[in-house]
Design goal:
The chain has about 200 residues and is α/β, with parallel strands linked by helices. It has one domain: Vaccinia Virus protein VP39 (Rossmann fold, 3-Layer(aba) Sandwich). It has seven helices and nine strands.
């Protein structure tokens, strides 16, 4: 990644923070610990091309877990755009507390909500982002019902991603951009916009 030494050091330290806390409770699967740099940090960071835009100031990470990808994006954006804000929705007590610690440690402009996203309404953001939280149809419903304003949705899709998008287009109208994942040749990252439900 083309980032400063300081940013790289913070990402490395955040990786170690996850591994240390993973000994106490489950932040990431034990089987992915050895590949955490690639499978979690780089995987999260590759969304930066969709995030580092002039019209994006607020990013809402739903079902944040260990703070992936929100903490990674916050660290990457900090030197580029200090006003960039990340909002985290994570209902787990331990995970939301961990995210809060990370946000304070790395001085991120953030808000941590220990709440169930399904119970929230009238939310506003520029970007809704989700990684390994819920399937695309459920994310679309959350965006449609729980948010009154957003510009983009950024999602990670696996090898059946094209079929998932095709099926979604039967119910929804939307435009999208996609790029191949650099961590899994069968996966993709998609940026969805102009989302509207067909027939109302």
């Amino acid at each position: 990644m083309n980032v400063s030494r300081e940013t790289m050091e913070e990402l490395e330290e955040y990786k170690n923070d996850i591994l240390d806390r993973n000994k106490e409770f489950n932040l990431i699967s034990k089987s992915s610990e050895k590949e955490i740099s690639f499978r979690h940090i780089v995987d999260s960071a590759q969304t930066i091309d969709f995030i580092d835009k002039n019209d994006i100031k607020i990013c809402t990470d739903i079902g944040s877990g260990a703070g992936l990808p929100g903490v990674v994006l916050g660290i990457l954006m900090k030197p580029k755009k200090p006003v960039f804000k990340t909002i985290f929705y994570e209902k787990s007590y331990h995970k939301s507390n961990f995210i809060k610690e990370m946000a304070q440690k790395y001085k991120l402009n953030s808000k941590i909500c220990k709440k169930n996203i399904f119970n929230e309404t009238n939310l506003k953001t520029d970007v809704i982002i989700s990684r390994a939280f819920k399937p695309l149809p459920i994310i679309f419903e959350i965006a449609f019902k729980n948010f009154v304003n957003f510009k983009y949705i950024i999602l990670f899709l696996g090898k059946s991603g094209k079929k998932i998008l095709k099926d979604a287009l039967k119910i929804w109208n939307f435009d999208y951009e996609q790029k191949k994942s650099i961590t899994n040749e069968e996966s993709m990252i998609v940026k969805i916009y102009n989302l509207k439900k067909k027939n109302g």
